[in-house]
Design brief:
Organism: Paenarthrobacter nitroguajacolicus
Structural class: mainly alpha
CATH superfamily of the largest domain: MFS general substrate transporter like domains
Number of domains: 2
Transmembrane segments: 12-36, 42-65, 77-95, 220-241, 253-271, 283-305, 311-329, 349-370, 376-396
Shape: globular
GO molecular function, one term: transmembrane transporter activity
CATH topology of the largest domain: Growth Hormone, Chain: A
Number of strands: 0
Membrane topology: Multi-pass membrane protein
Region (Disordered): 406-425
Strand content: under 5%
Distance between the termini: 46 Å
């Protein structure tokens, strides 16, 4: 897997991704502490609003921003997005009102909505071999999982030495390092550097239209809903399971979250070999079948578990949810690459970025608001139903007789539009 780091261009881009992710993790911790300083017991409402703004920026603005910058070279776009993110993070220590958090978060996350799809769509151009690209996806999944484990630990250590405002400086450093690495890298010239035709509306909606007209991507759209359900349950309600349902100490919360991350990491490490043997469909749909079962188990834990036995059930279920999520998330970019040409790739990756985050706008309220109003068991049951619906959609959309070879573009289906065509009225 690490052999792909021998490629100098990818090595620098991966380093930029890892450091920026750690900086983003520090931002999450520091932002929560800032919200508490400003709003006290209403900090949850402030954070909830900030996260909603983040998702709206991802869902509503990512396709528009990508369409606006589509004719620009990748390097200045990535550097500019990193610099905007660094500038916004630098503003956070000086905030004195909650509304200022919302403005800064909106601008920061809009820049992230510009950077992330452009960055992800660049990797298939750098690593053209199937095996190398699959290894890069595994490394990327590992980077996200390690960030979830390392950033909170690093933040806890730093908070023993400095105030939380200094954590924002770590975020600034992460984004500036990312910009520096991109600036120092010679990026391959892509079709988007030459320019694309079509109206702004045509380019904004192009990715979504390709999604709808491609069988594999329609399945991926349903799988995004499957992934959102356990992620929301784990991130929103793990603390409730540990502290309120099982009456366990706070240290067990870290253990539960670690099990979710370890399950995901194990799958990411083994993904290249497993995908080579079984293919994308078998691996991803296996995860889609397991997630509803594990979520139903989480609902059962709510009603049946004891403080002693329940913890082990919880840890096992969280491990299974993390592993199942990774079976879907790790190979997903292979589908995006195979379903796009070099010219349409940024639009397809942006559509996935936007549509996948739209699923969280459904899952987060089910996990949080329904859990608070009706109880954790009902929230887990609702998320189970959500995952079942997504899983059914994925199985129906991705036919068993999918004979398209891995690595062969599948966008050559009838009526799939390319950016050189005339805009749809």
């Amino acid at each position: 897997m690490l052999s792909v780091l021998r490629d100098r261009t990818y090595r620098r881009l991966f380093s930029a991704q890892v450091v920026a992710l750690i900086g983003t993790g520090l931002l999450t911790v520091a932002l929560g502490l800032l919200a508490f300083d400003l709003a006290g017991s209403n900090a949850g409402a402030v954070m909830g609003t900030a996260l909603t703004i983040k998702m709206l920026a991802y869902v509503g603005f990512a396709p528009v921003i990508n369409a606006l910058v589509a004719r620009l070279p990748k390097k200045p776009v990535l550097i500019a997005a990193d610099l905007v993110r660094a500038a916004m993070a630098l503003c956070l220590p000086f905030i004195t009102e909650a509304w200022q958090i919302y403005v800064v978060i909106f601008l920061l996350q809009s820049a992230s909505a510009t950077f992330t799809p452009a960055f992800q769509s660049l990797i298939p151009t750098v690593l053209k071999k199937e095996r190398d690209y699959t290894h890069a996806l595994s490394l990327s999944r590992l980077a996200y999982d390690m960030e979830a484990l390392v950033s909170p630990a690093a933040a806890a250590l730093l908070l023993t030495l400095v105030s939380y405002n200094n954590l924002f400086l770590g975020t600034v450093f992460g984004f500036l390092f990312s910009a520096t690495m991109v600036a120092a890298t010679t990026l391959p010239k892509t079709a988007d550097d030459i320019g694309t035709s079509g109206s702004l509306w045509h380019r904004t909606t192009l990715g979504a239209r390709i999604f709808w007209k491609n069988r594999r991507l329609r399945s991926l759209l349903a799988l995004n809903l499957v992934v959102a359900a356990p992620t929301a349950l784990v991130l929103v309600n793990s603390v409730v399971y540990v502290r309120d349902v099982l009456h366990r100490p706070a240290t067990d919360l870290a253990l539960a979250l670690a099990c979710f991350g370890v399950g995901s990491m194990i799958v990411a490490i083994t993904a290249p070999r497993v995908l080579e043997r079984f293919g994308d469909r078998a691996v991803m749909l296996t995860g889609a079948a397991l997630i509803p079962v594990a979520l139903a188990g989480a609902a059962a834990v709510t009603f049946l578990a004891t403080p002693e036995s329940g913890l082990w059930w919880l840890l096992g279920l969280w491990f299974l949810l993390g592993a199942s999520n990774s079976t879907i998330l790790t190979p997903s970019s292979r589908l995006l690459r195979d379903a796009s040409t070099e010219a349409t790739r940024p639009y397809v990756f942006t559509a996935q970025f936007s549509l996948s985050h739209a699923c969280y706008i459904i899952a987060y309220p089910l996990a949080g608001w329904l859990g608070a109003a009706a109880g954790l068991g009902w929230a887990a049951a609702a998320l189970t139903i959500l995952a079942i619906l997504g899983s059914a959609g994925a199985f129906l959309s991705w036919p068993r007789q999918d004979l398209t070879p891995v690595g062969e573009p599948v966008t050559k289906e009838p009526n799939v539009e390319q950016p050189t065509e005339q805009p749809v009225p």
